[in-house]
Amino acid sequence: MSSSKLFVDLTIAFRNLVQHRRRTLFLGAAIAAVTALLVLLNGLSTGVRETMIDTATTLSTGHVNVGGFYKVTAGQAAPVVTNYKKVLAVVQKTVPEMAFAVHRGRGWAKLVSDTGSLQAGITGIDIRSEPKFSSVLQLESGKLEDLAQPGTILLFDNQAEKLGVKVGDALTISAPTTRGTNNTIDVRIVAIAHSLGLLSTWNCFIPIESLRALYQINQDATGVIQIMLNRKDFDHIPAIAARLRQALDQAGYRIMEPDPRAFWMKFQSVSREDWTGQKLDVTNWEDEISFMTWTLKALEGISYVLIVILVAIIIIGIMNTMWIAIRERTREIGTLRAIGMHRREVLWMFLLESLMLGLLATIVGVLMGAAVAAGLNAAHVPVPTGLQFFLMSPHLHLAVHGSLMVRAIVIITFVTGAAAFYPSLKAARLRPVVAMSHFG
Amino acid sequence: MKAIVSVREAVKNYILGNVVVPALRGVTLDVVEGDFLAIAGPSGSGKTTLLNLIGCVDTPTSGTVEVAGKDTRQLSERELTDLRLHTIGFIFQSFNLVSVLTVFQNIELPLLLQRKLNGPERAQRVAALLERVGLREYGAHRPSELSGGQRQRVAIARALVTRPQLVLADEPTANLDSVTGAHILDLMRELNRTEKTTFIFSTHDQSVMAHANAVVRLADGKLVDRVTPAQAAAETGLPA
User: Fold this and answer.
1) Residue A154 pLDDT more than 70?
2) Are A58 and A132 in contact (CB under 8 A)?
3) How far is residue A354's CA from residue A186's CA, in Å, rounded to a whole number?
4) Which of B92, B105, B113 sits opposite A341 (nearest CB)?
């Protein structure tokens, strides 16, 4: 029958919450709702971020890239890495934790059909060494494996619509070579994929041999080596990029200064620089899509503002409730102080009550948020076309991971405790003689 | 006998806005160990203020109050709390039990605050006191399930559980009917005799004073005299 001090503290806290169940339920529901919103907002931004990473790292960038420019003359830069197999060997030795690495050609060209034309980025790939490509692309028509044949092309549906073409039709690709002359090749459309938002509006894929033929570059040249990492290493991307820079530098390569922009945004500044030959550029996925990560930052900014507002509401609610509770229990505080309870124990007693409420409510809130997120994911809620452009996904995707749930519980519980601290401190500092004579 | 409480020229003034309200005007009093002392006087005479000073929940404006040999004006807030926890037990007019705890937990609470005894020792101590105050069957009950007399017995058990040298009771029978009040005083008296605990209680009820072995009378914040219960009763014409 005997109790420990903590057990009695917990009993007092729990029973006081139960005794004022209407107030507890109201405040608990508010905390749970805010926690659920926090989980959903974070789940949305994490989902968008993951979709963005998945899509961007399939269409246009690796998690870490070794690209660069080759300049025949000081004023003419081409996005080419020469002798790429040697560079790849350094990469493989320096980043043993990578999932895999691919090399791709890069270019910018005019696509011409019988009925139209458009400017687009051309990516030269070896489809047989692209294990992730098929998991992200959703084909509307055609076969992906046909892209292994030279003289073929994969378009996105918006491009095909603009050009008025379908699978099996022919296109002419026209582009300036590294020597400054124009060259053309004819290609056959072998696959048309569903649009993946912004990146797929100006990207199409041809076999790398065809890209080399178009730009008249050597077999040992490529555009970029894209390094794909496992999810557990995503937090180490800056460190891996730094490690690579150092290793390539030691291997005798000239390395460009870190510049967090996409490669095509660097043409002008590189062309103005007074050097010729090869320089390598180590970038990460965020650099390569820096022109569009503002959508993610905007979403995170909006979430942040909303969360701050909601947390402020919780703080006001908790403080208000604590003031009421302390007013109601002033005589009890006086009694406890009189029989020998120290100030820190009174402080702990009230803090424990709010922490208990915060913990229970946030657990409920997190479960609610996770359930709603799971429901929305399962329902494949379509994203409006305008938003698809930025979210790179036709469906809403919320990523609610365990770490996010734990973080939400810890943050909101901490906030409830912090909000209760000042009223609890005031309660603890009440003089027993004043508290005992309190009425009302 | 050794004095457990020694009050010397104690003055207590309260400040209400710009007005100084004197509650005690130079009270001097000694209480010896094992005493069963009543502090009597009409409302506003300073009984509760004097008990607050002796109980270390307040300190005098001037003068000294020594409890168990310690001058309360020289002690820090923490030391005063420790003195209350280890030396003094409190019984309140309105019982002042923690409503959300069981009877057992209410009695055990001061022991938990002391952190001296382990679980089985605490359980044994509380069970013995529950037996002593006649509430053996009520350990698992909440205060709201008890009568006023039962609640005050719980409060007495809580006051005695740490085996304090001194128990202060502020009008302990004021909220009880006369029969229950008499039982409570009998219980306090018995504990005073058997445990040698010093009791100081305030009252303005003549029948309550009759249980004391001395009555200190206050009026307008001053100590008027110290008399026997019989003398106090004789002056009011009521039986002692």
Assistant:
1) yes
2) yes
3) 71
4) B113
